[in-house]
Specification:
By secondary structure, this protein is of the alpha+beta class. Helix content is 20%, strand content 22%. The chain has a single domain (5-105), classed as HIT family, subunit A (2-Layer Sandwich), CATH 3.30.428.10. The chain is globular, with a radius of gyration of 14 Å.
């Protein structure tokens, strides 16, 4: 499994704006935000993409969604809403090969997916 920039961020070898962190996840601000609020919810366990999750990662996936939900509460996005995106491999637009979920919020987002 190759090392990614996110692993270096987790180990504090390169800086990032850390929104919150737990034993299993780190949430950082995206360096190139696509919305007024753009965070990346990243499991610390090495997992290349959503295609590589195992049965015992169910709790981890739940924690990722719960992290988004608590950020929505913290920043009052619950009512207006937000978007969660997981890109998978090249055709899905994944550029960093450590599983992560984008959380975009803070404005009306465009309707397109492709
Ligand atoms: P994806 O294209 O789904 O793999 O998303 C990777 C995301 O990581 C992109 O939105 C990048 O802007 C973001 N990114 C890359 N390097 C960094 C970094 N050093 N700090 C924060 N976000 C980053």
């Amino acid at each position: 499994m190759s090392e990614t920039i996110f692993h270096k961020i987790i180990r504090r070898e390169i800086p990032a704006t850390i929104e919150c962190e737990s034993e299993t996840l780190i949430v950082i601000r995206d360096i190139n935000p696509q919305a007024p609020f753009h965070c990346l919810i990243i499991p610390k366990k090495i997992i290349r993409s959503i295609q590589d999750i195992a049965e015992d990662d169910a709790e981890l996936l739940l924690e990722m969604v719960q992290a988004a939900s608590s950020l929505a509460k913290k920043y009052a996005f619950e009512k207006d809403g937000y978007r969660l995106v997981i890109n998978c491999e090249e055709w899905g637009g994944q550029t960093v090969f450590q599983l992560h979920m984008h959380m975009l919020a803070g404005a009306q987002l465009s309707g397109g997916f492709a």
